[in-house]
Amino acid sequence: MVERVEGGGFIRVSYPFFHLASVRSHCQRTSTNADSLLPIPTTHNVDGIQDSLREDLEFETKPNLSDKTPIKTIYTEFGGIVDCINIYQQPVFDHPLLKNHRFQIKPTFENLTEKTLVNNSQIGSMFDLDNEECPQGTVPIQRMKYNFSQEKLLDDILIKDIPGVHVAEAFVPQNHSPFYQVNGICSLYNPKVEKGQISMSHIWVENGPVESSNRITMGWHVHPSMYGDARTHFYTSWTSDNFKKTGCYNTACRGFVQVDRKNFPGGYFPDTSTYGGATYEAYMAITQDLKTKNWWISAGKVNIGYYPAALFSNLGSASIVGWGGRTKANVGGRSPPMGSGHFPDGNRTHESYFRSPKIQGASLIVYTPESFMTKHFSDNTKCYDVGYHDKYYGEVQKESVVHFGGPGGNCGI
């Protein structure tokens, strides 16, 4: 769904905003009707909430469909392969920490922020009704095009201090914690990224010391090495030890529990913004379900899935939340553009941003942080910049914004 805002050239993406645009599909029928809800295995019968990690924290990073028979396989128009797997037999449930996990079909909270935005909008259809989705009782699991080694899965752009990574981010620090949600309406761009480079826009929650940080991120990125293309893809990631031995993107390893039948980590955004022209946006949120303690990933009006509480050693709440962008280049090479590829200048048709950024703190009220609560940081202001304004100075609307980005170039190590 989209909303076109007259005069500003904005297109607000609500739901759904990425999809299975299929060329063909193959169905494999089992003894269970694929169109009916499949039974819950008796092994997943109690909440998987633990206070600490077990010794068997380290898990497989091998291809995660080797022992799962898809009920349906979808071949997308751009060469991707998506398997529709029994919702209760997802590879994630093979994780040692999730053997006794109770599957949560939907969160106990309501997405009141997005509901307000949609109710005040005139919504039309972004996609036709013929797009593919997985049958009832199954969920989409994207096949990885490349066999990433564990090193490539974990040692990446999400670790700030490795060579070639540059950041332009705003965050609310620990002295205002605890936090249970971070959200914002993100502009979507497709910066030019070459082989060996990455450019991303994201929100995140984290807790713990840097060397063993527990962290969840979500947003969009252009990552040719992962997808084999230069499109803008929706992504999410997690770690319980600052990516030393745990964590990955999307469903490349066992961690993320998929719930929605149509939208999934790794899906691409078919439309992105043009500098000075139409701007596409997507609402994104990471929210802890205060009853189950699971962390939900929401985009548009869709609760896509969640990270079970049992995966984490120290994420009963977040001590830091934030918004912004990152890039990665080969060491000694040129860094790619971030966001729109231009420095923020107060014009939303020019810059990459998260508007209406909000957090949920100890009061459990979702609110916009004031400027004095936030900090922002760019490690190379000649390449990228970032700012936070609780009253947006560039336009008539008095709306908070995190804006960031830049052209990249020779940005150093």
Query: Low-confidence segments, ≥5 residues, pLDDT <50?
Result: 1-16, 28-67, 116-130
Q: In which range does the helix fraction lie? A: under 10%
- SS content category: mainly beta
- Look at the structure and give the mean pLDDT: 79
Major sheet summary line: 11 strands, mixed
- Written as H for each helix and E for each strand, in order along the chain, the element string is EEEEEHEHEEEEHEEEEEEEEEEEE
By DSSP, the count of extended strands is 22
Rg calculated over all Cα atoms: 20 Å
Q: What is the terminal separation in angstroms? A: 41 Å
Overall domain count: 1
Strand content: 25-35%
Alpha plus pi helix count: 3
Morphology call: globular
Main features:
7-stranded antiparallel β-sheet; globular; 413 residues; 3 helices; single chain; disordered N terminus; 11-stranded mixed β-sheet; mainly beta
Structure report:
The protein has 413 residues and is mainly β. Helix content is 4%, strand content 32%. It has one domain. It has helices at residues 112-119, 150-154, 224-227, and strands spanning 2-5, 10-13, 22-27, 72-76, 81-86, 138-142, 165-172, 181-188, 198-207, 214-222, 233-239, 248-249, 257-258, 279-288, 295-299, 302-307, 320-328, 352-360, 366-367, 375-378, 385-389, 401-405. The strands form three sheets. Strands 1, 2, 8, 13, 14, 15, 16, 18, 19, 21 and 22 form an eleven-stranded mixed sheet that branches. Strands 12-11-10-9-17-7-20 form a seven-stranded antiparallel sheet, with no helix packed on it. Strands 3-4-5-6 form a four-stranded antiparallel sheet, with no helix packed on it. It is globular. The model is unreliable at 1-16, 28-67 and 116-130 (pLDDT under 50).
